[in-house]
């Protein structure tokens, strides 16, 4: 076999669908975990500096942020391993696998493994859909904060009206109702919006939200790929013909 034929043989056995999903998953999880972790740290700093004077007012939020950061570590590790396994399962059902290991036959174990991947990926997609919706909440909070600051900038000539424009962290469940001051109003809020911490945190949450969306797209692509691979295994069991997805 010539070099060209060998290269075409290798390229023909690549599971492009699974490979695309793996790249999407890696990039999405990297964005979500990396930006989300740093955004939580910056959020704690903003709440501590501008919305709460007493440590006891935001100690619960600090514990929650620490807990979510540990969850992020676990998510990054789990998805890295799971994506590698799904990619390997994609290669398993390609024509390259048949040509490497000889006449391929689908076994009951192989079909059960593929059906298990379909079920797990479907459950992960449903759970991650909730994570995707949840990641929109901090973006909504910072969007409202930024919009209120823009309104304050427009109404700078009427100070009385400006002081009535506030963002109350207690209304979003970030602080208990007895927290003082718990909110930022008027020019104080405008000052918060002009800080580097606010802009960085806002951008990080947007990036984390985008990462969650990319990961959801990757899981949906995996669902298509694993479902197709299961059908391939059954087909190979009858015909002994390789294909790819």
UniProtKB/TrEMBL annotation:
GO terms for biological process: axon development; central nervous system myelination. It holds the Pfam family Myelin_PLP. The keyword Cytoplasm does not apply. It is found in: Membrane. SMART domains: PLP. InterPro entries: Myelin_PLP, Myelin_PLP_CS. PROSITE patterns: MYELIN_PLP_2. One of its GO terms (cellular component) is plasma membrane. Keywords: Membrane, Transmembrane, Transmembrane helix. GO terms for molecular function: structural constituent of myelin sheath. It is a multi-pass membrane protein. This is Proteolipid protein 1a. It comes from Hucho hucho.
